[in-house]
Amino acid sequence: MARLEVVQEKIRALKAAQAETDEKLKHLEQAILDKAFRGEL
Questions:
Q1: Coiled coil: which residue ranges (predicted)?
Q2: Cα dihedral 21, 27, 31, 37 sign
Q3: Predicted model pTM
């Protein structure tokens, strides 16, 4: 049973990391588009 809990905790951690990465990528994409439209790229 303990092994299952460890795996579940790893899954929760991976999901949280994925959500954080997704949010950062959205901000990065917007920042790149902003610079592109301002002619800074």
A1: 4-31
A2: positive
A3: 0.66
